[in-house]
Protein 1
Amino acid sequence: MFSRKISLSLLLLFLGTHIGITQQAVKAQIPVPSATNTKSVCPAQLGTFIDTAINRPLFSRARWGILVKNLVSTQTLYSHDAEKYFIPASNTKLLTTAAALKQLGADFRIRTSVYQGADGSLRVVGRGDPSLKNAQLTELAKQLRQQGVTQVTNLIADDSYFQGDVVNPSWQWEDVQADYGAPVNSLILNENAAVLTLLPQTVGNPLQIKWTDPTEAYQWRVENNSVTVQKDEPRLVEIKRDLKGAVLYLQGQLPVNAAPEVTAIAVFDPTQNFLRHFRQSLAATGISVQKTSIASGDNNEREVAAIESPPLSDLLTETNVNSNNLFAEALLRTLAHKQQLTKNQNTADVGLKVMQETLTQFGVNPTSYSVVDGSGLSRKNLISPEAIVQLLQAIAASPESKVFRATLPVAGVSGSLKSRFRNTSAQGIVQAKTGTLQGVVALSGYIDSPQYEPLVFSIIVNQSDQPVSTIRQAVDEVVVLLTQLRRNC
């Protein structure tokens, strides 16, 4: 997300204009899929066309895994290393969301409860609702006020529903400080991220930091080594967060009169972040709080207020359409509560076990994948195109098909595919999940071509030394070829 873009800007600064020239040369070798180069492709020609696209010299060091099948007859139309392991990036979310839909159902909701103790305390119990925002805290506060609550002796945050690491230990350090790598706990608020805007000042002065939530300014110590420069100089800023404390490091530059730079970082202590905001919501509703604390509590207490998440179908749509890592990780942990957890069990590990059992029920070969998280941020995830196609085929034949397909981005229309495939034969007829890490590009999903039978496909590229944009362009070229298949030729 934002942090990745900032890192790329710094890389461009160090490499100078060479990379720009290289990218122009590369793009010249790859025809941009568009309406102007639309053609009919006979099934017998498909293999030659795809081979030509992926065997260009600039991809000589890359690994391609591709599987294309007829969705109804399951006939294989093209296969290239489809049974081998690849780092799937966010294509991992297909496994997570399919398992969640199967196990929990489209109408499942996540409940956040407030319980009242005899001593005048309130205990708020989170169950990992990733959609919870300040507005929901205000609603809880209003419910409490309507119950006659005006004073709270102790506001207790019960963050024990999810057990184990709040951040996957295999995630890279630059990811866990960014908003897309935010910690996952039971009391998630505002996606556990803090949004800030950087504004240029007069030349020579540091950039100004403006927090979306003004109270964040009191939570962070900022080491501001940025500067405002002349209008013709490059725009390059980098924000880092200390992994051991609430310290923010800002460096780089913005030209004077440049547009503001908006970014977001992961909060340092998500439980305290929740408590602080909830206390503010209570105060705004006329409820005073003497102190706050963090503890698990007695389930025999009386529930006096509650809020529920949108239905799971909506949560899955956010997960897949916008490739939301936090939502995926929260849903993975929610899967764990289909089983009886024992104390000190890692919730994410139990969720992974439930996921594997569910995928086996779908008919996915358990040896065709190995995953360690629910989002795809980890480079330890390994999935074959064959596993993804098996899953997509099984979902398409299940009662959950319509709901699941509605959670996927549509080419040229929505989410992470909104700006791809525009003005091509793929626009509007491809539903697929994207995936991107450094050196990794993936795209898997469905094609409803009016000139051919419905298709299911998975394309994963690993170990490429080319820019992500170049790999993605070649992947898109392959997908456009698939949309140009014709029956009678």
Protein 2
Amino acid sequence: MKHKALPIALAAAFLAGCTLAPTYERPEAPVATSFPTGPAYKTPAAANQNGATDSNVVAAELGWREFFTDPRLQKLIEIALQNNRDLRVSMLNVEAARAQYQIQRSALLPSVGAAGQASVQRSPADLSSSGRAGISRSYQVGVGFTSYELDLFGRIQSLKDQALETYLASEDTAKAAHMTLVSEVATAYLTWLADQELLKLTQDTLKSQQSSYDLTKRSYEVGTASGLDLRQAQTPVDTARANFAQYTRQVAQDENALALLIGQPLPADLPPGRPLDGQGLLADLPAGLPSDLLLRRPDVTAAEHTLKGANANIGAARAAFFPSISLTASAGTASASLSNLFKGGQGAWSFAPTITLPIFAGGQNIANLDLAKVQKRIEIANYEKSIQTAFREVSDGLAARGTLDDQIAAQESLVKASDESYKLSDMRYRRGVDSYLNALVAQRSLYASQQTLIATRLARWTNLVTLYKALGGGWEEHSVPANAGGASEPTASAASSS
């Protein structure tokens, strides 16, 4: 019994085949084990508001509803995840890659089918052995398979593994597209808020400068102001008018950009939003993050799946050097007359194995193997570059985060000082103590500092959005009960997809 079982086991192992792909080993990350430190990188408190220790895990798992706390922004992101066409295409690409994988996987099993055949042939007398013209008929019905390749050296298995890695890479690519869309909607919304504030600032400045111009014009008409004073007063008015037209255009274009991202016109019933300089627009992010967790980013994992696919392709290229065995077989009934086709004794079968042994291909197989190895080295470089890019994005975000708050504080102080300077200069001008030029310079400084303050606040918020995405955030959606406070743990989690 043992001697009979041994050949069966060996045959089963032989037919199961093997893979000639090299054992995959993940390349070492070509970055430091921790993020940079220095004056630009400030470390906040060691625990977040939920009492959890700061770590990259917390940032990556922070749901976008918890990070983007503005109700209006949450609604826009929700609509975008349902309607955005680019995200829809990414999800369809995943389905296409899944179908391609299933097609490749099906090659591991024979395709069985049923077929019927009828043949009628007339032979002339001079070609017949009997010397008389005759008609021959044959009928056949059978079940079988055609050209089924025994995967003895893992060629089909390697191609299946490559298709699987391509499918997994497409899933991660779609996940990255999801996170990018969340980030793009947030950035576009913040830009919209900033341009609205710049428009309002310019409108207020225009009113103030128009009032000063009207006063100077009346003084000029009565002879107490010179033509130079009048033209100097006109300059900031025209500048504010030009800026007003510019920001009006930018606000309209911001709305168009948001409409494209969410896949529909902006709804009229959006919830009330929060101002750019308000609190609670975005949640803060934890710091002190280990760099090895960058491997959780979908663009990095997609690059690794592509690398694994290139590794599997080497196995398929190696298998081309070995013999290939294909089987064609069928079993059924055959008869010279249709009436006897299904009677006893009419059984028929055929078995036709084919073996192909590569002898000379002009160096094609060697070139294919060399190409597969080069492609793997290319994908190793792409994988390492994706890690370096991720590391740089997080490091830049942490550096900006550590300095932008100080910059905002300094800019707010500058705005306050410029405002006091302008008020004093304008008062001196109106009392005739000083020329209008000093008031004009002070007003320009105030207006410029106010614009810079809005731009710096926008930079701080957009940097947080970018840092959140760089840390792998934006994929999960956590919902918090309405009666829960900000310190409550999330009670439900779902991955959104279109």
